[in-house]
Design goal:
Length: 140
């Protein structure tokens, strides 16, 4: 079952907000890897890589198994589904608006330039009078 709660989405989005963690997920998509293998392409210590892995584990995106002293990580992409469902709502929002924009631009293209009028904005009038310049006194 997919967890659509706001707290679960927050943890997933926070985890994938970091480019290092996204790169680690990309590597895990190919095959399970050790924490050392995940740290390999980056200039970071094993401890730093382990912190990234823990963040991915908290989000439910990584499963870690221990074989002796070796920690093997594998990808679990199920939590990303909740994020995709959430984003699809906004995909529809933007698709509708971009479709409306496209229709409007096509309508403007079909009208000759002489028949187009630029929209007028509201006229703003200031009720305050501009300050009067102060006269300069002559130096004695």
């Amino acid at each position: 079952m997919v967890d659509y709660s706001s707290a679960a989405l927050d943890v997933v989005f926070r985890a994938i907000a970091d480019p290092t963690r996204r790169a680690m997920l990309n590597r895990l998509a190919a095959k399970p890897r050790t924490v050392g293998e995940l740290a390999e392409p980056f200039e970071m210590s094993l401890a730093a890589a382990s912190k990234h892995v823990r963040a991915l584990e908290r989000a439910g995106l990584v499963r870690r198994t221990v074989q002796g002293r070796t920690h093997i990580c594998s990808l679990d992409a199920r939590p990303l589904r909740a994020g995709m469902v959430w984003m699809r709502r906004y995909e529809q929002f933007w698709s509708d608006r971009l479709d409306a924009l496209e229709e409007r631009l096509k309508a403007e293209d079909s009208n000759p330039p002489s028949s187009r009028r630029a929209p007028r904005g509201p006229r703003i009038r200031s009720r305050e009078k501009p300050p009067r310049p102060t006269p300069r006194r002559k130096q004695p």
